[in-house]
Amino acid sequence: MKIKNFLKHLNNIDAVKNTDSVLNMVLQMLLLIFLMFMHDNGYLSIFTPVVIVPAILFKELRENKYIWSVLSVFGVIFYLILDLQGYVPNHKHIFAYVILMVTLSLFFKNKSTTIDFLKTQSKYIIGLCFLFAVIGKFLAPEFLNGSFFEFTNTSDPRFFGFSSIIGEIDMGLLKQNEQNFNALLNTTNPKESFILNGADKISSFGIIISYWTIFIEGMIAISFCLPKRFLLAKYRNVFLVTFILTTYPIATVTGFAIILTTLGFIQSLNKENQLSIFSWFYLLVFILMPLNYFPFTRLLSLF
Description:
By secondary structure, the chain is mainly α. The chain contains 16 helices and no strands.
């Protein structure tokens, strides 16, 4: 009862007290993400702030379908079409889909139904994203035998903090792996190789992470894709929150984490388009996301 009263009190805050306020917050959150992360080339770095900054400042522009149409052009060209010619991080594809989602909602939905459309589409974007992720993992032998995480945890700097603590691996050895891997990427010698320092210390943990990842991502895919009448669909936010809590403290993939959290926030709104307890959790994660850049490992080493 106390939780319900506290939640009711929170939902009386001006920023979230009605559908119009919540829609305004959602659009601001998305625009802030695009401003922070859509800078993969010179064109995006120069032109997207020119479009996004005024939209963040002025509500009329923020809800203008033509402003979002311009962003759609940028997203589709650089994250969907040109992806056929070069590498684009997976979460940038989601950026493009989300921009299209908002644009379509502003063109074809009136203001009172826009947020409902965004809620539904956010749910299916999350579900399909994890569905394809799980399918990809089953098609990758290196993921099923744990070697993917053995390699990633000891060569990708985003995992170094976790690996150094769990495997008691010297941070200097992990940085050496990163340097060796970068050198390998730039060599023209097909026989070039290097010894992966510390991989043997986390081999068993690699298997555990692999199958936990498949399980939790599979449950997210199923629960988000199923219609609401199925019991499992009612627990979709439980699975997503569990994924966030067990993944992003370890894998600080900020770009994907922040767009996933925002989509989670949108789809978790209740029938009256007010914030649920899950919505407040996602909002808190969104606010605290910059802490991903804080060197917690270095701080712990002082003690």
